[in-house]
Design brief:
Elements (H helix, E strand, L loop, with lengths): L9 H7 L7 H13 L13 H10 L6 E7 L6 E6 L5 E8 L5 E5 L2 E3 L8 H5 L1 E4 L2 H14 L5 E6 L9 H12 L11 E5 L3 H10 L4 E5 L5 H7 L8 H15 L3 E7 L7 H10 L5 E7 L12 H13 L4 E4 L12 H6 L7
Length: 348
């Protein structure tokens, strides 16, 4: 299949067809037209001869994702998008309102997911394929086109799929999002969330990317965690904790952990104590979000149980933030809308 022009950085675009002699400077302007300006034509790009523009458009693709469902929450400003790609694959995106008048976008990196985390609806869908860079980028561009009342200033790779199982495409997408001729989103406003693919985590640290790394931990105890998250059977908690400590030390930043809070499972004081032990000496921040499981197998902690957990975290010196799970009336949690579209679990 021909290469997609919005999957390219200026360097890769200039190298696609060396015989046409596209300079990097002109490739930067082409990228600005296609990504920052969000257009599908190359008319009038400075320094780009009409003949070269025709070659680029003839040899490259400019497909778009099709919006097949869009739902505005009635209880908060979240918007859930359901997209269909050229091959019929279905994927999700969530527009997230931030405290200041701006938006962040939670994007998918795969069609489905093969990691089968027990509490995750996407994991129950199974894995179909990786998304190409243009498919990840177009999720952001589609939201930006409609979000005229606020700028899009952040992106989190935390929707359907495991970003580090699509490593090269995700890194290419992040670079396009950050580029001055791309989406112009600061590197510190781009986050990648992983369940803990250790070799990719180590590669990410070694390569020195400016993006934020989040480890979805959910339990500080390896055997317990592995029962919910099968990836934990391959890479144990102490290994992942050491990798996150190294990353934070290299980047001079905090260790960022995501914690899906599940009633009767990971809300006890022993979890907080073990977290403090695992990350002793490293600045730590825990983002806690209530489980959202339509199957009914896993329940949300009630206010009292949640409060006890937060107290235990504070007593062990662990800073935390409670993340709001927005858009419950529009199935904004990962995998829910796509699962419905594909005949998955019905949600009342």
């Amino acid at each position: 299949m021909p290469p997609h022009l919005r999957s390219q950085t200026p360097e890769t675009l200039a190298a696609l067809w060396p015989e046409i002699g596209l300079s990097r400077e002109v490739a930067v302007r082409v990228m600005q037209r296609l990504v920052f300006d969000d257009r599908d034509d190359l008319a009038g790009v400075r320094g780009l001869a009409k003949a070269k523009a025709r070659v680029l458009l003839d040899r490259g693709r400019l497909d778009r994702l099709a919006v097949i469902d869009r739902r505005q929450s009635g209880v908060d400003p979240f918007v859930k998008y359901l997209f269909r790609s050229m091959d019929g694959a279905v994927l999700e995106t969530v527009r997230i309102p931030l405290e200041r008048p701006r938006f962040s976008v939670c994007i998918s990196t795969q069609v489905g997911c093969g990691l089968a985390c027990a509490f995750c609806e996407t994991g129950r869908m199974g894995f179909t394929r990786n998304l190409e860079p243009w498919e990840m980028l177009d999720q952001v561009l589609a939201v930006r086109r409609e979000a005229t009342e606020r700028p899009v200033t952040g992106v989190v790779f935390q929707g359907q799929g495991e970003p580090f199982q699509n490593y090269d495409n995700v890194m290419r997408t992040a670079d396009i999002l950050r580029h001055p001729s791309g989406a112009r989103i600061g590197g510190d406003r781009i986050s990648l969330s992983t369940v803990g693919i250790l070799p990719a985590m180590e590669r990410f640290t070694e390569e020195g990317h400016p993006y934020r790394l989040i480890l979805s931990l959910t339990s500080a105890f390896g055997e317990k965690r592995a029962g919910l998250m099968p990836a934990g059977q391959r890479w144990d908690v102490p290994e992942l904790a050491a990798a996150m400590r190294r990353h934070a030390a290299t980047r001079r930043t905090v260790v960022s952990l995501a914690w899906v809070l599940i009633a009767g499972f990971n809300s006890g004081p022993e979890e907080a104590k073990e977290l403090a032990r695992l990350f002793a000496g490293s600045p730590l921040r825990l983002s806690v979000i209530d489980v959202n499981d339509p199957s009914g197998r896993f329940r949300r902690a009630d206010d009292a149980e949640r409060s006890r957990f937060f107290t235990a975290l504070a007593e062990n010196g662990i800073p935390f933030v409670r993340r709001y799970s927005g858009g419950p009336d529009i199935h904004a949690a990962c995998g829910m809308l796509a699962s419905r579209a594909q005949g998955g679990v019905a949600i009342a």
